[in-house]
């Protein structure tokens, strides 16, 4: 175990571990087009991530120029988006920075690694498989497999429990204030990635995933 005593690293997925904005934008634009709504950019999608699929759809509808919309439209776009995204989860998705090397190195040290994401679990697992990280991830808990999704602390606690972490010390890595709030509420040390949202307070800041090799 490291000098810091972290035996567990849990990561957010979209915007932290992987850049999935292009694939999400493709699926979203397919759904929006089917409803006669204009397209959104990958940058607009990236800014809308973190709160789960329903909030993503709502933010994308706003970004596409809709001033008002009802829950029926949100549900219909969400269904079309989900179908498309499940069929094409990782055509363009890539891992950020050096995650592809660092996570296997931590796993080899005996560090438990989990993913706590507001993406739905099956799609998250498909993405992790596509980018070649499934073998080192011990638990994936999406927003559909916890009764208390982020920013509620139960989501992170459920992920740690699923890893069988016991009393090992946990580090949570994220990219948004939602991630920071989740860690703080759960009493877990938080690390913010440099490519995440600006101004998010954290105990550790990662200029690169390489920094985890000395922090953990």
TrEMBL record:
Q: Name one GO molecular function term.
A: phosphoglycolate phosphatase activity
* GO biological-process terms attached to the record: DNA repair
Q: Which Pfam families match?
A: HAD_2
CC per GO annotation = cytosol
Q: What Gene3D superfamilies is this protein classified in? A: HAD superfamily/HAD-like (3.40.50.1000), Putative phosphatase, domain 2 (1.10.150.240)
Question: Sorted alphabetically, which PANTHER family does this protein's record hold?
Answer: PHOSPHOGLYCOLATE PHOSPHATASE
InterPro entries for the chain? HAD-like_hydrolase_sf, HAD-like_sf, HAD_2, HAD_sf, PGP-like_dom2
List the protein's name. Phosphoglycolate phosphatase
Source domain of life: Bacteria
Q: Which organism is it from?
A: Mycobacterium aquaticum
